[in-house]
């Protein structure tokens, strides 16, 4: 009697961004039959038009900033003028070359990710997909998204379709003067005067980058301060830095409309005032790409904003359908999307999985200096009246020897811990490359280390990480 081969678990992933990529890769690694459907390219908008190119642009701006401020370290770049006296040269930024480089780099990253999926045995379909009930997907491979669909049955579906820039009817992007964060890479020259509407993370990052690249920048913020979702002390440092480098920060100013003029744009404010510039970047949030996917017909629960509701293992309201990334009601971070994608597959296939704890997520704002955070913070502690009492300690970076050596005068390390146990529960770092410095605190939060355990670790002297152990030691001392 012949043996029959057991059918492999069938997984269909809609979207090839960080969440979809990790889901597909994890599924293949665990032996499943995986198909991924992506219309733009593997990596999705995170790699092609968002995270990778924007952070590359910010890195270029950081290089320009370092050159401009090298004088305070004694580095002088002078050329002789006609009279023989030194003349400081002007830093020139070739934005067309910058954009060509970063888009090529994003494309190369997408190719690398595609190769990884191919080598893992994932079937890739270039096209658009939608649910046909909870156990099948209809895929259109036509460029126009026509009505001819292939039906792919699935034991598990992972939806990772991402999000798109939110557009206002009164400020429609045209790709030339009124721009979204997807369209800035088509600029051939640094904008003469860029008006950025929105002072959240995206708006603050681009405003900082373009001001450093040489644009006059006006940041229109409807809130009292920039980065309203961040630690107040950290946001104050960034706003002060924005003003120091010559940015015009307009607080409590809501943009009502943006119109194109003969030579630029005019932004009309809610109070009737106007701001004129050469270009306007709209950074007013994003909307999930969940419309037209057949979610509600399949019984998938959505929030009022259209985000897919998921639990801590990325499962939707229907057991065989999972979701990951910016289309869900979790944190809109690439790292969270990746973790959701992998967690979803591990849960679906019965592998060991730890539910995602959002309080353990490290996040970063790529301004100059950067803001990195993890765990509890002053706001969440104030809002949670039922938690134990916490203590905090802050070390200004201008007291750190390494910061002095490299010319850092602004920023700090802030630690949060439970008062009774001295367990580290959160941290904020404002510093150059804070994104690289937050990892020790992320480990401390994840593994519930005490301040004494953090303080007992050796750090290099001199180093910026020394400020972390200094803060931990100070919290031990305060307990005596």
From TrEMBL:
Instruction: Enumerate the GO terms in the molecular function aspect.
Output: flavin adenine dinucleotide binding; NAD(P)H dehydrogenase (quinone) activity
User: EC number(s)?
Assistant: 1.6.5.2
* Residues holding NAD(+): 198-205, 285
Q: What keywords are assigned to this protein?
A: FAD, Flavoprotein, NAD, Nucleotide-binding, Oxidoreductase
The record places domain Pyridine nucleotide-disulphide oxidoreductase dimerisation at: 362-471
- Please report the stretch or stretches of sequence annotated as the FAD/NAD(P)-binding domain: 10-341
Quaternary structure annotation from Swiss-Prot or TrEMBL = Homotetramer.
Task: Name the family the entry cites.
Answer: Belongs to the class-I pyridine nucleotide-disulfide oxidoreductase family.
Protein name, per record: NAD(P)H dehydrogenase (quinone)
Organism of origin: Leucobacter weissii
């Amino acid at each position: 009697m012949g043996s029959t081969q057991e059918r492999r678990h069938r997984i269909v992933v809609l979207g090839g961004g960080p969440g979809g990529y990790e889901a597909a890769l994890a599924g293949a690694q665990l032996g499943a039959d995986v198909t991924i459907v992506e219309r733009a390219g593997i990596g999705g908008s995170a790699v092609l038009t968002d995270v990778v190119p924007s952070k590359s642009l910010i890195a270029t701006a950081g290089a320009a900033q370092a050159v401009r401020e090298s004088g305070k370290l004694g580095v002088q770049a002078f050329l002789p003028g006609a009279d023989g006296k030194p003349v400081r040269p002007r830093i020139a930024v070739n934005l067309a070359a910058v954009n060509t480089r970063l888009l090529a780099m994003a494309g190369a990253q997408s190719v690398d990710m595609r190769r990884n999926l191919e080598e893992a045995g994932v079937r890739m379909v270039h096209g658009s997909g939608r649910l046909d009930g909870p156990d099948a997907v209809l895929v259109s491979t036509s460029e126009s998204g026509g009505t001819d669909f292939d039906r792919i049955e699935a034991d598990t579906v992972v939806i990772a379709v991402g999000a798109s820039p939110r557009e206002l009817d009164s400020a429609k992007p045209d790709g030339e003067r009124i721009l979204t964060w997807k369209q800035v890479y088509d600029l051939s020259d640094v904008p003469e005067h860029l008006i950025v509407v929105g002072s959240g993370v995206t708006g603050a990052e681009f405003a900082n980058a373009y001001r450093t690249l040489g644009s006059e920048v006006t940041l229109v913020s409807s809130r009292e301060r920039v980065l309203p979702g961040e630690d107040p002390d950290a946001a104050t440092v960034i706003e002060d830095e924005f003003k120091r480098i010559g940015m015009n920060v307009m607080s409590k100013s809501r943009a009502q409309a943006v119109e194109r003029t003969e030579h630029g744009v005019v932004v009309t404010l809610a109070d009737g005032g106007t701001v004129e510039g050469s270009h306007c970047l709209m950074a007013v949030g994003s909307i999930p790409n969940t419309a037209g996917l057949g979610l509600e017909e399949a019984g998938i629960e959505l929030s009022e904003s259209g985000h897919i509701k998921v639990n801590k293992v990325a499962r939707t309201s229907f057991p065989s359908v999972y979701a990951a990334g910016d289309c869900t009601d979790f944190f809109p971070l690439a790292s969270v999307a990746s973790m959701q994608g992998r967690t979803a597959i591990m849960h679906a296939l019965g592998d060991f999985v730890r539910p995602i704890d959002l309080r353990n997520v490290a996040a970063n704002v790529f301004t100059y200096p950067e803001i990195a955070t993890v765990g509890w913070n002053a706001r969440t502690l104030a809002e949670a009246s039922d938690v134990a009492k916490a203590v905090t300690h802050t070390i200004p970076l201008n007291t750190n020897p390494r910061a002095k050596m490299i010319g850092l005068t602004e920023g700090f390390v802030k630690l949060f811990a439970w008062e009774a146990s001295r367990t580290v529960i959160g941290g904020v770092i404002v510093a150059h490359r804070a994104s690289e410095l937050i990892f020790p605190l992320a480990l401390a939060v994840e593994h519930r280390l005490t301040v004494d355990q953090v303080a007992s670790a050796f750090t290099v002297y001199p180093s910026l990480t020394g400020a972390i152990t200094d803060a931990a030691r100070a919290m031990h001392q305060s307990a005596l």
